[in-house]
RNA sequence: GCGCGGUUAGCUCAGCGGUAGAGCGCCUCUCUUACACAGAGGAUGUCACAGGUUCAAAUCCUGUACCGCGCACCA
């Protein structure tokens, strides 16, 4: 006999290995079949998978397996992402642990280490995905990487196309700079967080030293880079000062007062210090008024171009000193408590420094327009729809995308410069190794205007203009999202016109968390339309974020993270998949706790034990037994009906990507209906001549349920299916090869209603047993009677159901039965149920039971009656509703009357 | 400031026009040979608040409060 408790580990190891070995998940171009394609959101190679990945991939796997079983050529394309800054930070951290920096290694050696890391981490991730049961063919030649050779080709092609269309350009702008990661970031890589700070009011005197203007600022340290003070030209307080010169405190510079309508009269003092080099708004004001831009903070976050005493100091240190000096000089007039949100690097949480710098940008407006149209026409359809509007709104307000990053790990910008042609325009310093670029010879961050970029995938042989060989490549790499944006077609070899690309593109659905809709989904849609002329996927299935049980984001620093692999160890993959799939409702965040897994584990165990029970009853010599027999009796028809309806519910839910509804339907069918009722009713029949017909149906329904559950819980279903296969008559090597069940026809219309009547009687008797504390071991007798003989026909056909499940010994079913002297009574629909009890009935208990019941029914009667009395209800409500209420009223009346009679009896 | 969610049993959440549901927890009984990771039964809810629409509202509309999340602003 098999053990009572299911042990997932050996089962999971066995099958995940076999699936890969037998190439179960391989997809090939098959034009006779409709393709169902999902491209994996490639996990960053930054470490182990987390709960978010578990959710994301469980959802995708469910879809892929489901669609494959419905007969589509389902292909789930595996891969990983190099993950730019995030991964480089991981490596830098590892180096730090060794007491090294990336500069110690130099660019080349550093990248070598990164590739070794890719080998390790990428492998780990694939391993973990296999453990999760993912239907991904992880053989080497099928796994993509955003930085492998093919993908590099895609990136170059995209870069070249955009460049040639003038959609990619280099310009000097104010960008977000992370002084920790030492790179520029795009706007969406900045997180804003509310912080408590101060608003400092500083007096800027007039040229002659007399009372000037008071500015309010949160960043006093930038004042050494001020080149003006702006006021609103309509401001009566300051209008007259426009054009006057102010003496910039702590320096000997004079700066003008300018008028600019962007200045808000209400805010602060109504006078703004203008630091074009370090504030986005000031930058535009500066451009408008032709102000000088003085960079006083460098790319390391240190002060430059300022009075000697602040030079080289960090921003924080400089702020402190400058404030002290302002106080000493009596320039500081006020300190106000102030809350404002501050930009932070989404990778390292360091404060973002707005800096002016020359970077590569992608022009977005033209790219966004077709994407907006596609979303509006729902060529890209969001599930849930509520993401449609935010998606479109974001695209409508899109800004150009800064795509250059000053890090080493990534696709190097495919642009070279000729040091001969451009020796006067390039900020090039030959010789000494550069810490920033890790190369000898430095291309400084300054302007390269006037130089001629040479576009080339590989190092050009020579300068096409002068034939010179002294070429230097742009030191920057591309934003990691640049390659991600191409993923839905780069995975199929684009720009090569491969057969795969032709067959699999556009893909079916993109499954992703809402946190990367703009960062990623929007860019894929734009790229797909731009480079392929078609949207990359027709559906976007948006899911939420896994949070801790209190709704807090899981994070390392909070220590509230749950490791999916530990959970798999403890509860099994199927249990974890079931749990998170059940909770992934409507794209909402999922509060997750370990306790929730218990339910999943129990369900897996339940499934396993059903199979134990069935197997116990099977003949030792296997033969095909699964069948829907002729001459079904009520319970058989009922379970088939429930089975068919459940499968239909699953089918409908799946078209809506409502996986929790699918999983939930199967759960309650198997547990509440199949196990709790049908199996219990089948047990005695297994001892009779009926045995093989019952077994046939048990196998049919359970086998089908296993298939239906397989997309969600692949391991346990595969394992059980394998052991039942000879009885089920399947010749398929794996469950995934089986067609998804469904489409069965339903039985007679009365089946469910009839069964419900019997179930209710059973429940009533059980209730009496429980209330009277009659031991389950003890059999009792019951009398069931009704005024209408016809009602009893149904029960007479199936006395065994009641005998078995209510554990009655002797069961009398007849019209007009009188209540035996020592008996308790219960009502079920039109039936009076009398249960004779030993000794004397506790009259008090019985009376109060009946009183309570009467009370409930009276309330019901009153409610029904009130509605029926209401003319409006009768004239407006649909017929069926009125009928329903009428019946309810009659039922309540009948029961109340019957209860009254019994009460009368009891009084005697 | 704009937008999007949420507010239902002790907890976590379904339901989204026709008599309030699940899982977990709690209470009672049962190791009845598939399963105690189980079975049977039970208790527990002014469905945030205020208006409105409707014969009928947890469900639709409007507003309010609180919680969360985006986006914008942030001198």
List the helices and strands and how they pair.
Blueprint: H1 8-21, E1 35-39, H2 51-69, E2 73-77, E3 79-80, H3 84-97, H4 102-131, E4 144-145, H5 149-164, E5 168-178, E6 183-185, E7 190-204, E8 213-217, E9 228-231, E10 245-247, E11 254-259, E12 271-274, H6 280-289, H7 315-328, E13 332-345, E14 352-362, H8 365-376, E15 381-383, H9 388-396, E16 401-402, E17 404-405, E18 415-418, E19 428-433, E20 440-443, E21 454-455, E22 471-473, E23 477-478, H10 480-484, H11 487-490, H12 499-504, E24 507-513, H13 517-532, E25 537-543, E26 546-547, H14 564-571, H15 573-583, E27 590-591, H16 596-617, H17 634-655, H18 659-685, H19 691-709, H20 714-728, H21 751-772, E28 780-786, H22 789-797, H23 799-805, E29 808-813, E30 823-828, E31 831-836, H24 843-869, H25 871-876, H26 879-907
Parallel strand pairs: 1-2, 3-4, 9-11, 15-25, 24-25, 26-27, 28-29
Antiparallel strand pairs: 5-6, 5-14, 7-8, 7-13, 9-12, 10-11, 14-16, 17-23, 18-21, 18-22, 19-20, 28-31, 30-31
The protein binds one RNA strand of 75 nucleotides through strand 8, strand 12, strand 13, helix 9 and helix 16.
